[in-house]
Amino acid sequence: MTAPARRRGVTEPPGDTVGRVVGTEDSTPLQFSVALGPDAYLQLDDVVVTLRLVPGVGPVLTSGVVTQVRARHEGATFGSDVFLIADGVLPAQVQEIAEVTTTRVEPECYVPPTPGATVQRASGEERAQALYFDKMDKKVPVGIGRDGAPIYVNLEFLDGTRGGHVSISGISGVATKTSFALFLLYSIFTSGVLGKKSVNAKALVFSVKGEDLLFLDQRNTRLDAPEGADLRATYATLGLAAEPFASVGLFAPPTPDDPTGRPHVTGRTSGVHAFWWTLAEFCAGELLPYVFADAEDERNQYTMVIHQVAAKLRREAVPVGDGAVSIDGQVLRTYSDLIDFVSDRLTDDEARKDWAGPVTGTGTVNAFLRRLRSSQKPLRTLVRGDLADAPGRRVSTEGQQVTVVDLHNLPERAQRFVVGVVLAAETARKEAAGAGGLLFTMIDELNKYAPREGGSPIKEVLLDIAERGRSLGIILIGAQQTASEVERRIVSNSSIKVVGRLDPAEAGRPEYGFLPASQRTRATLAKPGTMFVSQPEIPVPLAVEFPFPAWATRLSESAGEPVASTNGAGRRDPFARLPATASDDDAPF
């Protein structure tokens, strides 16, 4: 029992009295109902406490969250009686009843609250105790609760200590999944919860929705508008500064048919690096399987041809400069050249045995070639041997805290290729580096890369991250419209589950069984910025509202140049790159 409770005696918990435990309905240790007083109210998500004196144990404080509220006329029999009651003809009384789901019992003596016991709205220390915030050594603020106070999640379920991975679901364009994921990253990096580990914490973000994420390092003009004071106050309530990300690296694919290899972006003209892979890297790294990243590929026989050809390219390709390769004396400088070369070898009866295997049938080879040729247009700008090597063209998380890979200008097949190759490389790098450091990997439209049915090289990488990423320090933040279409093992391995606005049909799926019935209904009505956050320590998901981004989410919101790369103490951010000079137009900052 807390000190405030002791001061008020064992018969009444601390806080403002809102009603009493109902005696006409069953009260259980896990759920009970509260009859509200005439001048009191409770809304969904309010936190309440009630106290019971148990013989031999002492005072037992039961805390809970309001999951439903209903009102009715007591004394009315028919629906039309409401008019008689309103006219004063029929005596009746309005009574509101709140249903409460227990979140914590302290000490752990699971007895039902006594009917007639007073119930108070929790605040301060009692609210923190009810929601287990007092047990969280490292708290990450994720938004404001319905009562106007901060809501936290336990970092230990985000950094791999006791769990890891985040699953965010909701309707596209309404559920604000990407915005919440970015706010979560911002909170982790700037709240101070990481301590000294912050210098080894990185984020890798794949962007598929326009150029919205190319301005994370620029202040939002809303901060300078009249509503800016309220926005800053909201961030201050959460213990955060309303500032953009201070350490950001930006990558985009090259502009098609441009011999200079400049990045394919329009809104931001500086600070973005073009990325591509050379033919030499493609062959040496055996990247061919990531070209065949459709969900059904692993169920087809031609997959054996993929690995056979990939191994042959690794053995036979010799680099000749600028990323080009020579195979059997023939120099290949474009992805189209490579496809033509492989096609020639597989359609030649003698060479086919060496390249596809001695027992591979013509039908299997043709199936492989059809799919390989269809990849020419999507991947010809990403796999090159005709561009001079440029510093910064390799996607890497080194040198900045947040790395954004812009994919929106790429066809879906090329997007899969980039995600698969980059994730595989980062996983291998982390595995080689050993323990230490965190890499938060944010992927939107996760159902495209790890669908429930079928298999692919990308899905295998994501499953590997979901199942053993904690030990490597890789944390997956996956966002999708429908969790029911994502591989079950990825969703089940996510310690933190977040839901925004849901489609009514999707809300009924078993993947959302962690939501109480009332919250499933509410999720179909949730407004942008409202999320339901479930974490292992709290048995009831908590509704939160997270603040509007302090960073620009499009060119029209940008207040100008990137912020100075310094941390909260005024010292230079150790991740930030050196500022651009007049002779270095490509330097990001």
Task: Give short descriptive properties of this protein.
alpha/beta, 3 domains, 10-stranded mixed β-sheet, 6-stranded antiparallel barrel, 23% strand, disordered C terminus
Structural class category:
alpha/beta
Tell me, briefly, the overall form. Answer: elongated
CATH topology of the largest domain: Rossmann fold
Number of alpha- plus pi-helical segments: 17
CATH class of the largest domain: Alpha Beta
Task: Compute the number of structural domains.
Answer: 3
Give the strand content: 15-25%
Order of strands, main sheet, comes to 12-11-18-10-19-20-9-21-22-23
Q: What would the average pLDDT be, to the nearest integer? A: 88
Q: What composes the largest sheet?
A: 10 strands, mixed
Oligomer: single chain
What's this, in brief?
By secondary structure, this protein is of the alpha/beta class. Helices cover 27% and strands 23% of the residues.
Can you offer a commentary on this structure?
The protein is an alpha/beta fold and about 600 residues long. The chain folds into three domains: about 5-135, no CATH class; about 165-190 and about 200-275 and about 390-555, P-loop containing nucleotide triphosphate hydrolases (Rossmann fold); about 280-385, no CATH class. The protein contains 17 helices and 23 strands. A hairpin with a 5-residue loop joins strand 7 (about 140-145) and strand 8. Helix 12 runs parallel beside helix 14. The longest helix is centred in the last third of the chain and has 22 residues, at about 410-435. The two termini are about 55 Å apart. Residues about 1-10, about 565-575 and about 575-589 have low confidence and may be disordered.
